[in-house]
């Protein structure tokens, strides 16, 4: 993936090959500017690759986008401030003609319950905390029942306590929905705690330098973070990131 | 934007509480209404005292009482002359805003058009309204048309500038979301860009609400024999200063009423900013 042309062109991603299996929780980790968000946007058909192929459920990303096969969660919730929580969650049902062709698999209210926001259906985004806003945006991404969830540093702007709490919630939602999740993060602990597999990225040009399988038991509990196995994984990832930075 | 307290201002059912909130709102309204009224009353008293102490003749500055008398005695005449001014201001306000909104939408969707026409819009803005008024009268005649055109012209610019900014203020993440949702351009506009621009549009319209009256007034200085602008010029020449001041009071009241109307409309339509 190259941005721009001529001498000023930037190679954002080069020779990236990765496969994510159905139902898997894959984390992409790396320093800023290593192209992990770019990769997510290529998968989501927000950007078009300058070379190479991307397949989402056996077809081009555009087909997957039109068929709503993925939901996208942004770093900042990106809620529409003039719509209450419920109306924000049902936005995907209203636009893009999806609601006319499909029956909604979930009621928007049920999704607000799923993300733990029962009682806040008519609250406006500015009345909600950052963590609650992000919950609404997760509910919004899930409302059309997509088999894939693309998450771009969804908890990066939150404090650690809220983040830990939402990590636990996300694992619960993952177990409840069986969605494939591709999760971009800066946090080593978050990547280990949440995922089955971690892809380590290096910058300039963005590439995958290592792939770490996380064989920790499920369902995961916070106490897991204090175990030696967890520590071994975070240490391994830290070494991989250090190596990729010097490479 | 992000509330620090997770359930700030929310009752258990997710609705904002009403009880104590409305009482404070009432107190705030009283203070915000009472204070300016008090200041105005004080200014009137100061005005009266100054005239008496300094011995200013009534044809230079009339006393508040004589202005009050003029307001009552000449109310028929003031009312007759208010109607055309109100019609012209409202017409100009509506026309200017509609054209400005349409232009802003076109600019945001077509960069070439913006680059070509935006400087022209700025250039038109720099032309003095007082100089354009007679030109418009020459072109459009003595009726409502030239006055509405001038009120529209004065309204147009702030709305155009603010509206372009407002449409571009849309959250890039929300626009990206619309793309992920395969929303059409029209949907992106309707769901994201248009509501994002409303606070900007209203701040422009608050400016325009009073300046459109000013535009109509200036337009009435020439080529007409009705309207508050005409009345102001006439009474100035005749040294009927009390009526002149009365006409100014009425003009102010009209402009204030417009401002108030726009504010109420904003309060009703832009609820999420509160």
Structural class based on helices, strands and sheet pairing of chain A: alpha/beta
Mean pLDDT of chain B: 87
In CATH terms, what is the fold-level topology of the largest domain in chain A?
Answer: Rossmann fold
Low-confidence stretches of chain B: 1-21
The count of domains of chain A is 2
Summarize the structure.
The complex is a heterodimer of chains A (247) and B (274). Chain A is α/β, with parallel strands linked by helices and 247 residues long. Chain A contains ten helices and eight strands.
3D structure, described in words:
The complex is a heterodimer of chains A (247) and B (274). Chain A has 247 residues and is of the alpha/beta class. Chain A has two domains: 2-69 and 146-246, P-loop containing nucleotide triphosphate hydrolases (Rossmann fold, 3-Layer(aba) Sandwich); 80-145, no CATH class. Helices cover 37% and strands 15% of the residues of chain A. Chain A has ten helices and eight strands. In chain A, the strands form two sheets. In chain A, strands 4-5-6-3-7-8 form a six-stranded mixed sheet, with helices on both faces. Chain A has a two-stranded antiparallel ribbon with strand order 1-2. In chain A, a hairpin with a 4-residue loop joins β7 and β8. In chain A, α6 (108-114) packs across α7 (130-142). With 274 residues, chain B is mainly alpha-helical. Chain B is 79% helix and 0% strand. Chain B contains ten helices and no strands. Chain B has helices at 19-54, 64-73, 75-109, 111-126, 129-140, 144-168, 172-180, 185-219, 228-237, 241-269. Chain B is globular, with a radius of gyration of 24 Å. The interface between A and B is large, with 39 and 33 residues.
């Amino acid at each position: 993936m190259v941005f721009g042309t001529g001498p000023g062109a930037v190679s954002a991603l080069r020779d990236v090959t990765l496969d994510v299996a159905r139902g898997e929780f894959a984390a992409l980790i790396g320093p800023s500017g290593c192209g992990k968000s770019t990769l997510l946007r290529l998968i989501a058909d927000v950007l078009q690759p300058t070379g190479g192929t991307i397949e989402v459920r056996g077809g081009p990303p555009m087909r997957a986008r039109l068929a709503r096969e993925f939901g996208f969660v942004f770093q900042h919730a990106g809620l529409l401030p003039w719509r209450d929580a419920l109306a924000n969650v049902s936005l995907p049902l209203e636009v893009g003609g999806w609601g006319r062709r499909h029956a909604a698999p979930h009621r928007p209210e049920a999704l607000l319950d799923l993300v733990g926001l029962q009682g806040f259906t008519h609250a406006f985004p500015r009345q909600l905390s950052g963590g609650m806003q992000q919950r609404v945006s997760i509910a919004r991404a899930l409302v059309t029942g997509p088999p894939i969830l693309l998450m771009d540093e969804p908890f990066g702007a939150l404090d650690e306590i809220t983040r830990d709490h939402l990590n636990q919630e996300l694992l619960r939602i993952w177990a409840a929905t069986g969605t494939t999740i591709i999760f971009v993060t800066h946090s080593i602990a978050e990547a280990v705690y949440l995922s089955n597999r971690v892809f380590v990225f290096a910058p300039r040009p963005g590439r995958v330098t290592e792939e770490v399988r996380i064989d920790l038991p499920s369902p995961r509990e916070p106490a897991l973070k204090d175990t030696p196995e967890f520590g071994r994984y975070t240490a391994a990832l830290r070494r991989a990131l250090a190596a990729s930075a010097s490479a | 934007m992000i509330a620090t307290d997770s359930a700030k201002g929310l009752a258990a059912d997710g609705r904002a509480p009403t009880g104590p909130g409305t009482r404070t709102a009432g107190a705030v309204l009283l203070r915000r209404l009472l204070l300016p009224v008090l200041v105005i009353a004080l200014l009137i008293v100061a005005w009266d005292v100054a005239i008496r102490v300094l011995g200013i003749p009534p044809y230079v500055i009339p006393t508040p009482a004589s202005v009050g008398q003029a307001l009552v005695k000449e109310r028929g005449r003031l009312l007759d002359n208010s109607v055309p001014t109100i019609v012209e201001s409202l017409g100009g306000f509506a026309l200017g805003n509609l054209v400005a909104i349409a232009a802003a939408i076109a600019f945001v969707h077509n960069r070439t058009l913006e680059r070509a026409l935006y400087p022209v819009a700025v250039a038109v803005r720099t032309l003095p309204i007082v100089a354009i008024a007679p030109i418009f009268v020459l072109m459009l005649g003595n009726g409502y048309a030239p006055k509405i055109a001038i009120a529209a012209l004065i309204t147009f610019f702030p709305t155009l500038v603010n509206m372009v900014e407002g449409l571009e203020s849309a959250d890039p993440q929300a626009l990206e979301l619309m793309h992920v949702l395969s929303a059409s351009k029209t949907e992106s506009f309707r769901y994201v860009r248009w509501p994002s621009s409303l606070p900007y549009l209203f701040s422009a319209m608050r400016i325009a609400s009073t300046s459109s009256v000013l535009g109509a007034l200036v337009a009435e200085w020439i080529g007409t024999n009705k309207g508050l602008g005409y009345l102001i010029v006439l009474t100035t020449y005749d040294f009927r200063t009390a009526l002149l001041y009365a006409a100014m009071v009425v003009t102010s009241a009209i402009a204030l009423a417009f401002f108030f109307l726009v504010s109420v409309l904003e309060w009703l339509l832009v609820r999420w900013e509160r």
